[in-house]
Design a protein that fits this description.
It is a single chain. The protein is an alpha/beta fold and 211 residues long. It is 37% helix and 18% strand. It contains eight helices and seven strands; from the N terminus they run H-H-H-H-E-H-E-H-E-E-H-E-H-E-E. A seven-stranded mixed sheet has the order 3-2-1-4-5-7-6, covered by helices on one side. Strand 4 (133-137), helix 7 (142-148) and strand 5 (164-170) form a beta-alpha-beta unit. Helix 2 (15-34) runs antiparallel to helix 6.
């Protein structure tokens, strides 16, 4: 699966962004041989299963210049690195508790020469600071994730949408989200036609978490 998939859905990328997306596969192929952070099947379909999936968030939310976004449980750098390429004027902090994963993230950031990304080996609970949005890919059920990230979201919003969590999830979320009256769920199949996205969603939970 090549970068054509990215260029198909995001038609206004500049040359630097295109080059960055083109470089991703070689960087991940290389580092995955040394430190296995992406499964064999997923590395063969990197642009579909990781890059385009991460960019599903960009179909729901555009990040402003100077905004600060935290990627919790980033693993090999998803969704944070594709989003950082897409929004070069936004500051991204990528955090994971597993050191070898953050090592790969550091190397990819360096390989792409991304100036708007910081990677941290830490639990999110121990991370200082607050952010406009928190993004993630299904690292825990929403109530657990809300607990982990409590106090990490800024009160003052600079986007039209209230600050909050943008969470990539799949499947039936009825039970998991039943206590959140103000949650919004966006189907990625409305934005991407590939079968992979049939059950994939972006869950948006605004900053005032009312149970």
């Amino acid at each position: 699966m090549d970068t054509g998939l990215i260029f198909k859905y995001f038609t206004t990328l500049n040359e630097v962004q295109k080059e960055n997306f083109l470089q991703l596969e070689a960087l991940y192929q290389d580092w995955n041989k040394k430190i296995n952070v992406v499964s064999r099947k997923d590395i063969d379909e990197l642009y579909l299963r990781h890059v385009l999936h991460s960019l599903g968030i960009a179909k729901i939310q555009q990040f402003n210049e100077g905004a600060e976004v935290l990627d919790v449980g980033t693993g090999g750098g998803f969704p944070g690195i594709p989003l950082a390429i897409m929004f070069p004027q936004t500051k991204f902090t990528l955090v994971d508790a597993i050191g070898k994963k953050i090592k790969v993230v550091h190397e990819v950031i360096e390989g792409l020469n991304l100036k708007n990304v910081t990677a941290r080996h830490s639990r999110v609970e121990d991370l200082p600071g607050q952010f406009d949005f928190i993004v993630s890919r299904a690292v825990a059920a929403m109530p657990t994730f809300v607990h982990w990230t409590k106090g990490k979201i800024k009160r003052e919003a600079t986007h039209e949408r209230k600050n909050g969590i943008l969470y990539l999830k799949g499947g039936d979320l009825t039970e998991e989200l039943k206590d959140y009256r103000n949650v919004q769920v966006f189907d990625l199949k409305d934005h991407f036609e590939e079968d992979f996205f049939e059950t994939k969603k972006v869950v948006y939970l605004p900053q005032k978490f009312k149970g």
